[in-house]
Amino acid sequence: MIRELADKVAIVTGAGRNIGRAIALTLADGGASVLVNARTNHAEADAVVREIEALGGRAIAHLGDVADADSVRAMAAAAMQRFGRIDILVNNAALRRERPFAEMDHAAWREILDVTLDGAFHCVKACLPALRQSGAGTIVNIGGLSAHTGARNRAHVVTAKAGIVGLTRALAHDLADDGITVNCVVPGLIGTPRAKEPAHHLTHQTITGVKGRPEDVASAVRYLCGPGARYINGQAIHANGGAYLGV
Predict the structure, then answer these.
(1) In which residue ranges of the chain is pLDDT below 50?
(2) Which domains are seen in the chain, by residue range?
């Protein structure tokens, strides 16, 4: 078994389900100890922890809203208290609503940006001292296909996810001297349980016609967190089955 992340500690936000859960499990499979963050659902976070522990890994659950700076600082402190270090931060937490722009008020706009974009800001700020001490710190931000293709009724989501790409590129420059790499993995057309299929999924198609799995995204994240990816920095890497062929 390859344990390239042995002795590393990761924080994965929004890790109670779907892509976040797959990322937490995959990093743990690589040997990392994982703080599993969820916003309010303790049962989901605890279930992921139990899955990791059943496979011989170490994990803790921590509830906290990434839009709240105090909550994020408490999350980073919990990871340090339990594991003594933070080497990997995966900013996965996000909200994805659909509403026509003409019907969107400022509160609806801010709700998305507060979690997706401001949340990533708060998490990096809280974890930065520990990431600097790591010697091989890694930040992976989770983007979104619609940030690159555009989408109807998603001005707030598209803007927030496009901002995540911009933040990735800026932080890659700002944190390079600290030995921290910053990249973005952009999922597209991933089959996850949803109350309603996003409208933009109906206008795009993968090359094979098959949707991806959360594990396909998680594998890309794991690679970026490992020793073989230290020369990859400031990149937006798409995991979308060819639904979008960007440069």
Answers:
(1) none
(2) 9-239 (3.40.50.720)
